[in-house]
């Protein structure tokens, strides 16, 4: 039986102007000239992959795809269609659709071009091939358990699942990591490569990850925001540690507490000083 989505051993049955036909003894399928690797002869057994071409015709290729019905691999997103979903490159002349029905509800977290998805293939009711996103059990099978030594380590990886309360990622160390919505400033896309730090090791070997900067990193970032703003105003700004919290939030997109901590650090480092409701560069003294 000739099955789309699998590598199969078929026999070369006859030659035509545009390639050969291969058969399982009952059915035939075209092996186009541009899908042949090396030389083949009539009655020879060839190892081919079966799929549908752009016209929906069943064809075969001697090229090995990145994924099949029973194998998974990381594949690249090459096109995004709001009406259909996203297309992935599986190493063939035709890209494969991951249906929007299998993607997150909100398009804002759909994969973008260049993102990676861990996929295999599946058939729709008409036998056409679609990309199949890996489930949690599949990701667990390729993961390893984290040890206590991984605590507070910076890690990079790819988002493989998004849920209402957070994000799951697969790290370069092969850890399964969960990012609670409180531990991120924006929601990452499915398939996006991200970086965070491990904030907890769970009993099952998975980890909790934060995408937020460490406190000293956030302080440095907030201080830079303040300095950059003062630079645009010639080294002075009408804000200080007693400014209205709403005004601070509107101008700097940070809480008053974060603003005061950053401002305090700048004063401690002798970079700024305050006077009558204003903050100035110390170089202006």
TrEMBL record:
Pfam families this protein is in? CvfB_1st, CvfB_2nd, S1_2, WHD_CvfB
Per the UniProt record, which residue ranges are transmembrane?
Answer: none
Checking InterPro entries in the record gives:
CvfB_fam, CvfB_S1_2nd, CvfB_S1_3rd, CvfB_S1_st, CvfB_WH, NA-bd_OB-fold, S1_domain, WH-like_DNA-bd_sf
UniProt domain S1 motif: residue ranges: 152-212
User: What top-level branch of life does the organism fall under?
Assistant: Bacteria
Annotated family: Belongs to the CvfB family.
Recorded protein name is: S1 RNA-binding domain-containing protein
């Amino acid at each position: 039986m000739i099955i789309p989505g699998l590598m199969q051993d078929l026999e070369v049955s006859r030659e035509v102007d545009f390639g050969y036909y291969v058969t399982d003894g009952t059915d035939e399928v075209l092996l186009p000239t541009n899908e042949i690797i090396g030389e083949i002869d009539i009655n020879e057994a060839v190892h081919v992959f079966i799929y549908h071409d752009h016209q929906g015709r069943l064809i075969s290729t001697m090229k090995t795809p990145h994924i099949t019905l029973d194998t998974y691999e990381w594949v690249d997103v090459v096109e995004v269609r709001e009406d259909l979903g996203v297309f992935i490159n599986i190493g063939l002349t035709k890209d494969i659709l991951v249906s929007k029905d299998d993607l997150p509800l909100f398009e804002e977290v759909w994969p973008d071009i260049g993102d990676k998805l861990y996929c295999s293939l599946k058939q729709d009711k008409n036998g056409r091939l679609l990309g199949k996103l890996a489930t949690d059990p599949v990701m667990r099978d390729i993961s390893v358990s984290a040890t206590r030594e991984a605590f507070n380590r910076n890690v990079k990886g790819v988002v493989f699942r998004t849920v209402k309360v957070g994000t799951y990622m697969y790290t370069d160390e092969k850890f399964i990591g969960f990012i609670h919505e409180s531990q991120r400033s924006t929601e990452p896309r499915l398939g996006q490569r991200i970086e965070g730090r491990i904030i907890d090791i769970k009993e099952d070997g998975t980890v909790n990850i934060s995408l937020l900067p460490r406190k000293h990193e956030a302080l440095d970032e907030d201080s830079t925001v303040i300095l950059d703003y003062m630079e645009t105003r010639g080294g002075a700004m009408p804000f200080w540690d007693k400014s209205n919290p709403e005004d601070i939030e509107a101008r700097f997109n940070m809480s008053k507490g974060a603003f005061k901590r950053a401002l305090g650090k700048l004063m401690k480092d002798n970079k700024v000083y305050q006077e009558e409701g204003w903050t100035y560069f110390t170089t202006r003294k």
